[in-house]
């Protein structure tokens, strides 16, 4: 048995399902720590059946449980969280899980002396960007309890680095998409919404002129970045993980029309919308992680459509 063991919080979820196979391939054993409120139990059971993965079905809000699960782990990936939508609807729960939970995991990791901790941060720590592409040193203006807790999480990691020598990387994920994605995802739900309409032969409906954009990064590419961040020589940095390409909603509609293969034109719902745009500067990811996205939005969306047939 390998002596590299990852405590992986929130590992019952969407992104983790794509990271765990890479960890197993890389010789890690994995201790999933998830309360399974949103976890995919069938998928977790498949992982457990490999003999390389175990499930600790507990809550990150309980420091004692986190500390106990941390014993014997050499690495940590911290994903457990409640989403933006829920954080707006219920800030109390969000602060409990995302702030107290973060602290429980970081403090236990620092005390255990793990080799590396990787934290899932988010592009939303920037708030509305003043310029594109967005660089790690740009001003941060998180707008919701979820985003505020992600930013605070990055700062807390700095504290445990100074205090106890914790080695960490915080990955600022842009708009993650791919197989297994939850349909109600805050930003990327537009993909599923368009696909469903197109399958029914209906045109996608775009608010405003469709100028708002996202930096869509495929979950398979993202999963490689997580493992690279666990093993990189340089550490203690926030790192953008995106493609650097901003795809407008109008462009996304065209890509999906092509992928589904229907003969329709998007409809525009003329009204004023707040045009937010996103594109990551990924120079640091290239330099520090030796990471590069490989899947274009066109390929990724085509594959997503095929997969969900
Ligand atoms: N999906 C995206 O586009 C995106 C973008 C930016 C950042 N992120 C971050 O990446 C990470 C993974 O995202 P995802 O899309 O896989 O999320 P997900 O919702 O699919 O998975 C989160 C997991 O955390 C678990 N969880 C929730 N509360 C918990 C608690 N109190 N204790 C223990 N476990 C708990 C859930 O059961 C779930 O399995 C998260 O930290 C998220 O904030 C995701």
From TrEMBL:
Annotated ranges, domain NAD-dependent epimerase/dehydratase: 6-242
Alphabetized UniProt keyword annotations: Isomerase, Membrane, Transmembrane, Transmembrane helix
GO MF, any single term: UDP-glucose 4-epimerase activity
Enzyme class: isomerase
TM annotation in the entry: 6-24
Keyword Isomerase: yes
Gene3D superfamilies the UniProt entry points to: NAD(P)-binding Rossmann-like Domain, UDP-galactose 4-epimerase, domain 1
Family: Belongs to the NAD(P)-dependent epimerase/dehydratase family.
Entry-linked Pfam families: Epimerase
InterPro entries for the chain: Epimerase_deHydtase, NAD(P)-bd_dom_sf
Protein name: UDP-glucose 4-epimerase (EC)
EC number assigned by the record: 5.1.3.2
Keyword Signal: no
